[in-house]
Amino acid sequence: DAKTTQPPSMDCAEGRAANLPCNHSTISGNEYVYWYRQIHSQGPQYIIHGLKNNETNEMASLIITEDRKSSTLILPHATLRDTAVYYCIVRVGDNYGQNFVFGPGTRLSVL
Amino acid sequence: DTGVSQNPRHKITKRGQNVTFRCDPISEHNRLYWYRQTLGQGPEFLTYFQNEAQLEKSRLLSDRFSAERPKGSFSTLEIQRTEQGDSAMYLCASSLAYGKSSYNSPLHFGNGTRLTVT
């Protein structure tokens, strides 16, 4: 079972920041938070990941709460091309695929 | 772009036929994964290789499914005696993992092979 909870859908106005929440209340100390997105008919695209510090790259920012029980993915200036399903995944330290479990994600519609 | 490549992109087959899909990972990546995705669901893990060794298999991987990675580079996924329930997108992913970097290296996915069994 997925270890994360995300809202099933969200809307965002083009040009505004999109803030996608994720709850991972059972996260443990060595578990990373990953974000992927999937545009229709394509494979999941890696966005960003973090352990406990906030992270930023050219695509997005990841804000992880101090207790690490939740996080927010921020797309600073959403465009129509950001319309996709966004997956938040909590993964145990090693690379075993069994521990990389996708939930249903959040369908973001940029309008 | 030297991302993960999957072929074919689409495959239509009749029930009972065998099909084979190919995945070429990012060249320096030593780990390779297969996932399956049905409509409206997130990807589900099927199996995973480190180099040529198949180290994990999901219960989803029935006896009709077999995956190989003979030289630790490309991989094939074969489905024998296909059933309509096998219709799905089959995704391949790869990652680079050695030492402590294995603890946080992300998976990079291909665009999948969409299988339709009629």
Notes on the protein architecture:
The complex is a heterodimer of chains A (111) and B (118). With 111 residues, chain A is mostly beta strands. Chain A has strands spanning 9-12, 18-23, 32-38, 45-50, 55-56, 61-64, 70-75, 84-91, 106-110. In chain A, the strands form 2 sheets. A 5-stranded mixed sheet of chain A has the order 1-9-8-3-4, with no helix packed on it. The model of chain A has no long low-confidence stretch (mean pLDDT 90). Chain B has no helices and 11 strands. Chains A and B meet through strand 3 and strand 4 of A and strand 4, strand 5, strand 9 and strand 10 of B.
Sketch the topology of chain B as an H/E string, one letter per element: EEEEEEEEEEE
Radius of gyration of chain B, CA atoms, in whole angstroms: 14 Å
Uncertain segments of chain A = none
Number of strands of chain A: 9
State the helix count of chain B. Answer: 0
Biggest interface goes to:
A-B, 26 and 31 residues
The chain-level structural class of chain B is mainly beta
Give the number of helices of chain A: 0
Q: How is the biggest beta sheet of chain B arranged?
A: 7 strands, mixed
Ends apart, CA distance between termini of chain B: 34 Å
Profile the largest sheet of chain A. 5 strands, mixed
**For the largest beta sheet of chain A, what order do the strands appear in spatially?**
1-9-8-3-4
Shape assignment of chain A: globular
How many strands in all of chain B?
A: 11
Content of β-strand of chain B: over 45%
Q: C-alpha Rg of chain A, in Å?
A: 13 Å
Overall pLDDT of chain A = 90
